[in-house]
Amino acid sequence: MGLDNGAIREICHTIARIGAIDEFILGSNGYYSDVAVLHEPWLAQLGLAINDTNYCRAFSDTLDFQRQHAIGSDGRVKSRWAGRPGDELCGQLRSEGLLRMPVGLADDAQTSWVINVAEQFDFTGDRSWLARQKATCENVLDYLLRRDTDGNGLVKMMTDSHLEAQGSDWIDVVWAAYENALVNAQMYWALSRWAECEELLGDGPQAARYREAAGKLKRRFNLSTTEGGFWDAQHQCYAYWRDKDGSVHGTNLVVPVNFSAIGYGLCDEPGRRTAILDQIENLMRQEDLFFWPLCFFSYAQDEGHAEVNWPFPKYENGDLFLAWGELGTRAYAAQNPPLALKYVKNVLANTRKTGWPFSGIAADPNRAMAMISSPTTAVSSSVCIANLYGVQPKYNRLYLEPHLTRELNGTHLNYGHRGKEYHIDLSVGDYAATVDKFKVRSRKPFGVNVDGHTMEYFNQSNRTAALAITTSSAESLELTIDSWPEAVAEKRSWSESSRNSGVNARHVISNLAPNTVYRMSRNGVSTKSLRSDGSGRVKFDCRLAGSVTQKFELAVGQ
Predict the structure, then answer these.
(1) Rg of the chain over CA atoms, in angstroms?
(2) What span, in angstroms and rounded, lies between the C-alpha atoms of 159 and 156?
(3) What is the rounded CA–CA span in Å between residue 373 and residue 357?
(4) CA-to-CA distance for 375 and 395, rounded, in angstroms?
(5) Half-sphere exposure for 411 (CA within 13 Å, toward CB)
(6) Cβ(99)–Cβ(152) below 8 Å
(7) How far is residue 32's CA from residue 518's CA, in Å, rounded to a whole number?
(8) For position 346, what pLDDT does the model report?
(9) Whole-angstrom distance between the N-terminal and C-terminal Cα of the chain?
(10) Which residues pair with residue 214 across a beta bridge?
(11) How far is it, in rounded angstroms, from Cα 45 to Cα 101?
(12) Residue 87 pLDDT
């Protein structure tokens, strides 16, 4: 509801076609340019919108292929694949077309590869596949952690100064050096996401090590520029990089840097978030831009490749690259959903008008395709589905965290996840998901998983199920959550109903206070006392009487 469904579908088709160069070679430049880059952290997210099991399998195979051919024994990730010579470093040995960029060493290839592995696992839930990536992900992360040469928590680039005229990340012809905020923001997210994976694989010490490194990085990142961090109090935004001599660069409101700081969770101070986002929106209105540029003001001329970046705004010195829109809408959706929706609509309108998300960006079709195909990740998959509709596939559930406006009320999505078809209905303050014979409804974010006759409800963003209900056979069951607080001792209330009569259901409620007596009531009548076990779980069986709604409460007490 409220969006151009046809334009969304066309964008999805465009990504699916253009990004597939060959078997084992998927990316967001595509077959027009004959290039697929590895230093883009949103590649796994393409599968969110394409929502095809073949694409999901193909990207898992692609990551396997890259693990075998793109990563050195020292953990260094090659930045891109190219189908033709001329794009490699002088004297560089090509391996299956994979190479490093001539304009610099893209250190965000390290962070992007780990982020893509972790987020691809969310789609597949394949722990054996994840285990095969474990040693390589550790090697890739440790390569950058070793680059924290002074122990202050920030990883260092290969260059000490912008005067060396070498790029170090996706914005490859701006000479970001030494301590690069964009790479460090991605490093924080990569460490955080991979720590979760280490925990799932049973390696608690490694998970703790990566979380400690992430925390140290975050603390330094958020210091002011005068204290050795990136927060520029004068310009009320994060600076892009610091040279080794302590000089600060990229104070021209570089959008990917600031969106990454917010979207990846480094900037958790409300005042800073508001200052950044309000400033960006004021400038968007002042300049009448339909989508976010890479920066709002010009770099100094010695801070980037003068031939391709001047006069401002030109290429990476102020052009509009939609690729970073997912992080933009992630930043705005939680705070101001109508603004996130506005920029989605702008791109969809232009897609309907011109056939492309935007037009006139380049005379060279290769450059145009390179800029268009990754933006669709931002606009179609993660913007509409993840950040506004809130559909987030996870390794053990489908998670819903909508940020809706009223014009999106009544949205219905049919979404496939790991062999199940989810029918999702969304309105402000009313979210529901139906899968197989089960339906879950709540006013707050939740996750759901169904396996056979068992439905699991996950409270908000928790990774473990709060309630599991197993029916005796194939009867339908609808669960409505009224109140499910985080605190283990507070009262939980919910209701259940079924279209069938005489449904027997076993319940397991988890994440309670261990070894504690709880009182169960049904339809306002106290029925029994239940004692939680040492892991904080209680179990009980009950019989549902046809379509009559049964109301349950569970609270501490005799």
Answers:
(1) 25
(2) 8
(3) 9
(4) 25
(5) 27
(6) no
(7) 63
(8) 85
(9) 48
(10) none
(11) 24
(12) 64
pLDDT at 377 over 50: no
- Residue 278 neighbours by CB distance under 10 Å: 13
As a whole-number percent, the residues of the chain with pLDDT over 70 amount to 90
Q: Which of 192-206, 275-289, 324-338 has the least mean pLDDT?
A: 324-338
- The pair of structure tokens assigned to 20 is 């597939």
Tokens 């669960």 label which residue?
Answer: 479
Q: Give me the residue label for tokens 């010009």.
A: 298
Euclidean distance between CA atoms 555 and 558, whole angstroms: 9
Structure-block tokens of residue 346: 């702008």
Report the C-alpha dihedral over residues 263, 130, 486, 208, rounded to 10 degrees. Answer: -80
With residues binned 3-state (H G I as helix, E B as strand, rest as coil), the percentages for the chain, rounded to 5, are: 35, 25, 40
Are the CB atoms for 381 and 48 separated by under 8 Å? yes
Q: Report strand pairing: 25-26 vs 503-509.
A: unpaired
- Per-residue pLDDT tens digits for 128-167: 999 999 999 999 999 999 999 999 999 999 999 999 999 9
The residue ranges of DSSP E strands in 100-210, in sequence order, are 179-180
Q: How far apart are CA 300 and CA 176, in angstroms?
A: 12
d(CA 12, CA 383): 12
Q: Where are the beta strands (DSSP E) in 144-277?
A: 179-180, 231-232, 237-238, 241-242, 248-249
- In whole angstroms, give the CA distance from residue 318 to residue 325: 15
What pLDDT shows up at residue 20? 78
- Residue whose C-alpha is closest to residue 240's, from 300, 179, 160, 296: 179
Rounded to the nearest 10 degrees, the angle between the axes of helix 181-200 and helix 204-221 is: 160
Q: Return the DSSP state at 219.
A: H
331: helix, strand or coil: helix
Distance CA 529, CA 427 (A): 37
Residue 538, C-beta contacts closer than 8 angstroms, at least 6 positions apart: 508, 509, 512, 518, 530, 531, 532, 554
* Confidence band for 66, pLDDT divided at 50, 70 and 90: very high
Contact call for residues 500 and 546 (beta carbons, < 8 A): yes
Interatomic CA distance for residues 460 and 112, integer angstroms: 27
Kindly report whether the peptide bond that precedes residue 313 is cis, defined as omega within 30 degrees of 0. Answer: yes
Q: How confident is the model at residue 196 (pLDDT cuts 50, 70, 90)?
A: very high
- To the nearest whole number, what is the mean pLDDT of the chain? 89
* 23-33 average pLDDT score: 78
Q: In this predicted structure, what is the pLDDT of residue 383?
A: 57
Q: Residue 101's pLDDT is what?
A: 54
Give the per-residue pLDDT at 477.
93
Mapped onto helix, strand or coil, the DSSP state of residue 556 is strand
